[in-house]
Every structure is written in structure tokens, then in C-alpha cells.
Amino acid sequence: MPKAVRFEEYGGIDVLRVVEVDRPVPGPGQVLVKMRAAGINPGEAAIREGRMHERWPATFPSGQGSDLAGVVEELGDGVEEFAVGDEVIGFTHQRASHAELVVTDAAKLTHRPRNVPWEAAGALFVAGTTAYAAVRAVSPARGDTLVVSAAAGGVGSIVVQLAVGAGAKVIGLAGAPNHQWLAAHGVTPVRYGDGVADRVRAAADGRVDAFIDAFGGGYVDIAIDLGVRPDRINTIIDWAAAKEHGTKTDGTATAASADVLAELAGLISDGRLEIPIARVYPLDQVRDAYRELERRHARGKIVLVP
Predict the structure, then answer these.
(1) Which of 15, 60, 110, 142 could form a disulfide with 262 if both were Cys (CB 3.0 to 4.6 A apart)?
(2) 24 is a domain residue
(3) What is the pLDDT of residue 207?
(4) Number of folded domains in the chain?
């Protein structure tokens, strides 16, 4: 029997189990995918802990995971755009991708370019579409200066590359161990922590046009203090500050489509986008994977494999 991650109640990492489940069966318009890689994300930890109950309540027993990449195992009725054996990148909204076998709608899949690594493909959906939406929300253009918090994290590392590709000057807030990676990708690295606003002003020559907050913890307030207009600030985590200041909160929900996945995969295939992989864990070590994620110091994505 195939294995899948499950939890029976809200709680910490210890509520996660890897258990045997019935083999999923694809319905009309659906595809059964044999998972090769699936990214993990902070939002999944928040849901599992119950912190998102009002927004996204869990029903128990709950599965977990949205990102996926794998090989088509079986087709439901009416699916013509894929064949058994096709390699695909996709997503599910059913909290089900942290599993050996995943059913999802054919409309949520795109073909995997051969030169896109499995780990990058499996980590692409949440971080990639969130980054895509955040960059689109603040519209960085040639000559603009954009600041990004958590610039070397799962979302931030993609944001900075997309913004550099758009021609913006990008200032990335990150710890010193990530400065070399940021600089190699055309980003001006700035250390976070006390005095960060002054360091940003110096790096930006006094003018900041846009700000993307991928960390929370007061960065929206800092963006406002730096003189950034609220309509050019986007946070993917600090909804209270966004409500207070009238900033944007665009993320995965505004860019969740197979077309966006295909566009991002094309950038990876062309060598114009890198998905940094912090570490790969076997599915059975899902607790260890989330333990590392929740330290919030990983560069790029953490990925599960069967």
C-alpha cells in the first residue's frame, strides 16, 4: 500500500505520521501521479499547528502538501493532454502531495522540461507562484529599487531573481552566510537586524520604490518608514500590517495556475531561474524536514522524496 503523511489533530511536529493509505483513484478529469519530489512550506506548518484554523480549517485525518512533481501513473476519464509515463509538475489544493501517490486535476499539471531537476520541479508551486504574484503586485521596472526581506528563503530567492530579470535594482535582506549567493545573482545584499532601515537607505542611495516582505515581523512598517507607497508594498505573511497600512498581500492564490508553472519551469529550463534546494529528505523523515524549515534559516527550498 502507498504511504502518505497524515495528522489526526492540531499540534507540533510530533503529530505528523507517515502511514499506509488506500491507493488513490483518479476521477473524471483527474490524474494519478507517482510523486518524485514535493516541496514543504511554512503555511503547511501553520495549518498543522492550528494557527490558520479560521482561514483554512483542517478536517481530520488530514493530509498535507500542495507542491508536486512526478510521473503520470493513471488517467481518469476524459484526460487527453497527458499520457501514462509523462513527467509532470503540478499542485493540489487537497492537502495531499506529501505522499507516494497523488491525485490531482489535469488542469493543475504541466509537462516537466527534461533539464529541470526533479527537486526544483517538486518545490516550484507554492514558492514559485507566490514569488510570481508578489513581483507582479509591485511591478518592479528598470530603474526601480526593490527591497526584499528573507531574500534567500524559499520565496525570496525566487522573487529576487524575477525582479533582477525585470531590470530592477534589488536589495536583499539576509544573513551574512547568504550574501555571496545573493551577490552572484545580481542582488545587493544587506544584513537584517537592528539598524536595517539605515543600511537599506545607504544601499539604495536614499530611494526605495517597492518592497516585498517574505518574512513578517515588522518589515511592512519599515517599508512605510522608507517612504514606499502602500500600493507598492506586498507582504505574503503580515496580514495585520497590510490591513493597517493598506498594502497588498498577493501570493499563491492570485497566481495558482498551470500556465504560471509552465512559465517558471521554462525560465529554469533556459537557465534564467534557479530554485535553490537547501536539503532533500525522504518522506519518512517528514518531521525532520519541518524541524529544519521552522528554524527559518534554510537557503531555498526543503524537499521530500519517496
Answers:
(1) 110
(2) yes
(3) 93
(4) 2
Note whether residue 264 is domain-resident: no
Q: With 0.90 as the threshold, say if the pTM is over it.
A: yes
Q: Are residues 283 and 204 in the same domain?
A: no
Q: Based on the domain organization, do 17 and 94 belong to the same domain? A: yes
All three cell numbers of 46: 501553520
User: Do 47 and 110 sit in the same domain of this protein?
Assistant: yes
CATH code, 296 = 3.90.180.10
Residue 245 CA, chain-centre distance (Å), reads: 25
- DSSP state, residue 99: B
Other C-beta atoms closer than 10 Å to the C-beta of 11 total 12
How confident is the model at residue 55, as a pLDDT? Answer: 83
* Gap between the Cα atoms of 173 and 155, Å rounded: 13
- pLDDT tens figures, 113-145: 999 999 999 999 999 999 999 999 999 999 999
* Residues 249/141/110/128 CA torsion (nearest 10 deg): -50
- Residue ranges making up the domain that contains 188: 129-253
Question: What is the predicted pLDDT for the residue at 295?
Answer: 87
Q: Which of 47, 32, 116 is nearest to 82 (CA)?
A: 32
Residue 94 lies in a domain: yes
| CA–CA distance, 154 with 131 (Å, rounded to integer) | 9
Residue 30, pLDDT above cutoff 90? yes
